[in-house]
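2024-03-11 09:14:02 DEBUG pipeline.ingest accepted 1 chain
2024-03-11 09:14:02 DEBUG pipeline.ingest length=219
2024-03-11 09:14:03 DEBUG pipeline.predict start
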Amino acid sequence: MPEATTTSTWLVAEPVVERIELDATSWVDVVRGLVPQADGIHDELADSVAWETGRVFRYEKWIDEPRLSSWQSGDRRHPALAEVEMWMRRRYRRVVFDGVALARYRDEHDSVAFHRDRELRWLDDTVIGVLTLGARRPWLMKPIGRRDLDDDTAGAIDLLPSSGDLMVMGGRCQADWLHAVPKVRGRSHSRISAQWRWTSRRGQRDRNPSYFAPRHFSR
């Protein structure tokens, strides 16, 4: 359904929101082309942001994450990201974000495995916004199984966002569904993902280890 027209420097005048009901309590809204100048914003962020390489404990050792990361908040946010955040606050009303996380997938070798945003801890009622800037890459979702880091893509939904597309996951999506950006075959240019996270802190606190927690596969 189209949103009401608003005056904006960075956003399309009448964004169309498509809601995908994943199950009875989980959904994802897809807004194609919300940010028309997304490629230029990608280039600005790629050149100006202080990117860092995170580390995760896998296979009995610390390894570099296959992507770069950064964080912006307050006046440090790119003005386009500030407008996207305000649009989400208006549409989803009660949500308040404390900043925007940035992830950069430099080429086809960078990726993130299937995971949930467990760092929020309260997963029964969340809103997670993900804006794509730059290259078009697969963006997969699948219901949680016995192994939440399994790379099996069978039956996964691919939202395949283009530059400027916004995806918003809500309800119990972080409790019951996984998402991933897999490696791709062939040449892929840089993609930046801007991510906003909110939880109502209702329901039961999730006590499982986060994506970044050490995992011991030999035990």
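2024-03-11 09:14:41 DEBUG pipeline.report The chain has one domain: 17-199.
2024-03-11 09:14:41 DEBUG pipeline.predict end
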